Amino acid sequence: MMFSSFELSTPEWLWLLPLPLLVYWLVPAYRTKRTAIKVPFFNLLIKSLGEDPSEGATQLKSSWWQRLILCVSWLCIVIALTQPKMLGKPQVRESLGRDVMVEVDLSGSMSEQDFKNKEGQNVNRLEAAKSVLRDFVKHRDGDRLGLILFGDSAFIQTPFTADHQAWLTLLDQTQVAMAGESTALGDAIGLSIKSFESDDKQPNNNPERQKVVIVLTDGNDTASFVEPEDAAKVAAAKGVRIHVIAMGDPNTVGEQALDMDVIDRIAKDTGGQSFEAKDSVALQQAYDDINKLEPKLYESTTYRPKVSLQHYFVMVVVCLYLLAFTLMTIKRIRSSHKLSKQLSSDNKEGGYV
Q1: Looking at the chain, which residues constitute the CATH 3.40.50.410 domain(s)?
Q2: DSSP assignment string, 54-72
Q3: How far apart are alpha carbons 170 and 350 in whole angstroms?
Q4: Which of 30, 63, 234, 343 sits in a 20 to 30 Å window from 167, CA-based?
Q5: Which residues form the VWFA domain (predicted)?
């Protein structure tokens, strides 16, 4: 039952409203009436007999304000039983559907200035990656993003967060070689798996959310304790999908060489895709393709917050009964004082007879 912004959770209690009237009509109060003889010499008679009579019974008749308090109190009690609630303004709640961990290679080779920015100027690979990631984040509404940086070892720069602006701020703080000169790709994948597992144990987190890793690297693994392919197999068993973007020229030799066979297997084993990005255009295209492979996955639900009003009606009942008790006490004191004066006056009149 709802009236605009007011709702009764259990309106069936309203059937109790006419109950006092039914009781009044069907079960009338017991009444008795006795006549008494009034004599002007009552006080003298009592004194001569040596009796000490008590105060006589009075007729129980409620006043208008007592009836009003009873009616309002009963109404408040019944309304309180219906559990009234005030409905707030409609709110939109978005349920997050995917966790995306972005892994960025910070090895020394990321300082190579073989990419161009939007103005056509040469920039290093890391700056090119940052530029593309800024555009990538704009299309990730509803996703939680994390950031892992790796070089000689891997570490978490940003745990999973829905605050994309904070994520970008921490990405901008990264620098080439801040994690070392080497490439610990396998350890980075392993750290991602551990991050997903730790996050699943947090209260109110849904372990059924899709888990995606996006790896950006420009060289072979040279420093990991865990081989990238072994880490990928564990990721596949945990339901983690990995997309790998290889930056630079795949024909490069030495430590900076790209082993595309390993990169392809990492992606294939986990149900992801691998991409080659020789320039900024190809890098942008790789992230665009990932956006298509991992479309937005979240639901928005509209709800109205509810504020219980039950305790207010209970407080009104308590206050009304305290008021009635106070008024009755005052009335009783005044009646007693008035009766005392009347008896004193009668005694004085009896003394003159």
Answers
A1: 93-303
A2: PPPP------HHHHHHHHH
A3: 102
A4: 234
A5: 99-290
In CATH, what number does 93-303 get?
A: 3.40.50.410
Please report which confidence band the pLDDT of residue 45 belongs to, taking 50, 70 and 90 as the band edges.
low
Helix (H, G, I), strand (E, B) or coil at 117: coil
The C-alpha torsion from 229 through 231 and 233 to 236, rounded to 10°, is: -130
| DSSP result, 192-240 | HHHHHHHHHTSTT--TTSEEEEEEEESS---S-SS-HHHHHHHHHHTTE
Q: Is the separation of the CB atoms in 258 and 219 below 8 Å? A: yes
* Cα–Cα distance, 129 to 123 (Å, whole number): 10
Strand bridging mode 6-8 / 84-87? antiparallel
Write down the pLDDT at residue 353. 41
Question: Are 132 and 175 contacting, i.e. CB atoms less than 8 angstroms apart?
Answer: no
Identity of residue 236: A
**What is the pTM for the complete model shown?**
0.60
**Rounded distance between C-alpha atoms, residue 86 and residue 102, angstroms:** 44
Confidence at residue 2, expressed as pLDDT on a 0 to 100 scale: 45
Find out whether 118 and 134 touch, Cβ atoms under 8 Å: no
